[in-house]
Amino acid sequence: MLKGNVPILATAFDEQGQLDLASVERLVKFLLQQGVDGLALFGNASEGYALTLDEKRALFECVKKQVGDLPLVAAAGGASSAVAIEEIARVQRWGAQVAMVNPPSVVKPGPEEIYRFWRDICQTCDIDIMIQDAPLMTGVNIPVPTLVRLCQDFPTIKYIKVEQPPTTLKITALKQALGESVGLFGGLNAGFLFEELCRGITGTMPACEFPEVINAILAAWQRDRREAQALFYRYLPFLRYGVQPGIGVAIHKTVLHQAGIFASDYVREPAKALDDITRQELRELTAFLPLAALGGER
After folding, report:
1. Virtual CA dihedral for 156, 159, 165, 168, nearest 10 degrees?
2. d(Cα 112, Cα 117) in Å, to the nearest integer?
3. Cβ contacts of residue 222 below 8 Å, gap of 6+?
4. Confidence of residue 244 (pLDDT cuts 50, 70, 90)
5. DSSP labels for 126-177?
6. Each residue of 132-165: pLDDT tens digit?
7. DSSP code of 188?
8. What is the Cα–Cα distance from 55 to 77, expressed in whole angstroms?
9. In this structure, which topology does domain 4-211 adopt according to CATH?
């Protein structure tokens, strides 16, 4: 079962905005060296919304050839179940072990439409499904009773990524209803990781430039909760900095560029590049809170 640290892989572009697979290979090598429990592609922090089908295929193939048996989660979905089923089948053919699926959001569904969306998917697809519950991104609220009903009715749904603030309350409600039958993952750049661990999450799916920080918190959690709490509190200013709407993707890529992992920190619109003041703030922050990517030690 998927668990632990499963970062969302950033997508590298060159200065002309073209896919840069050499930089992606350096990033995957770095993450494998640090030790992660899986990788996720095409999510929000991957700029999956800005990638063409050919780019997604090339990116997935690039990653797959490096990771061996490491689990790969691929975001796949659509504005209807028919579209989502096609996308899910595609990433499964490419070699994904888990499809991370958002609710349809062009026409906002109610609880019954949400249920029927995942019912259609689960009756057609045989890949493990992760429901991404991210209303800040989709504008769609998935009530706890609907999530519980889906998980109880369709065993193909193995995971829920809980990103509806306050995540802690929803995690507790889901944990009480579902127990250990479904893996609950945190998101939102691990900004509530310690509290989510206290509530019973299985793992977390943050950005990818600080895997050693997440690994250290998860390892400490197993032996000394106060140590885990101290590590989390220490790096919390960095975690919150990377989740700012509109510029979060650029923050992740700027760190990777400064580290020499990415040849460029180019982001595709509508994501925004960083201004000079924000870049300086980020340099000061990472000087104070060392990262392995930048040659620092915790």
Report:
1. 130
2. 9
3. none
4. very high
5. -SEEEEEE-HHHH-----HHHHHHHHHH-TTEEEEEE-SSSHHHHHHHHHHH
6. 999 999 999 999 999 999 999 999 999 999 999 9
7. G
8. 17
9. TIM Barrel (3.20.20)
Rounded Cα distance, 206 and 71, in Å: 16
Query: DSSP string covering 4-72, please?
Result: EE-PBPPPPB-TTS-B-HHHHHHHHHHHHHH--S-EEESSGGGTGGG--HHHHHHHHHHHHHHHTT--E
- Residue 260, sorted as left (phi over 0), alpha (psi -120 to 50) or beta, turns out to be left
- Mean pLDDT, rounded, for 270-287: 95
Cα four-point dihedral sign 246, 271, 88, 103: positive
Please answer whether residues 174 and 160 qualify as being in contact, where contact means their C-beta atoms are separated by less than 8 angstroms: yes
Extract the tokens encoding 148. Answer: 């519980």
Place of tokens 């050839």: 65
Q: Which pTM value belongs to this model?
A: 0.95
User: What percent of the chain is modeled with pLDDT above 90?
Assistant: 97
Q: What's the mean pLDDT in 289-297? A: 87
H or E element, residue 203: strand 203-204
Q: Taking residues 243-264, what's their average pLDDT? A: 96
Nearest CA-CA partner of 65 in 8, 24, 99: 24
Q: What is d(CA 93, CA 105) in angstroms, rounded to the nearest whole number? A: 25
pLDDT, tens digit, for every residue of 15-32? 999 999 999 999 999 999
> Residue 113 above 60 pLDDT?
yes
Rounded distance between C-alpha atoms, residue 73 and residue 97, angstroms: 6
Q: How confident is the model at residue 291 (pLDDT cuts 50, 70, 90)?
A: very high
Dihedral (CA of 123, 126, 132, 137) sign: negative
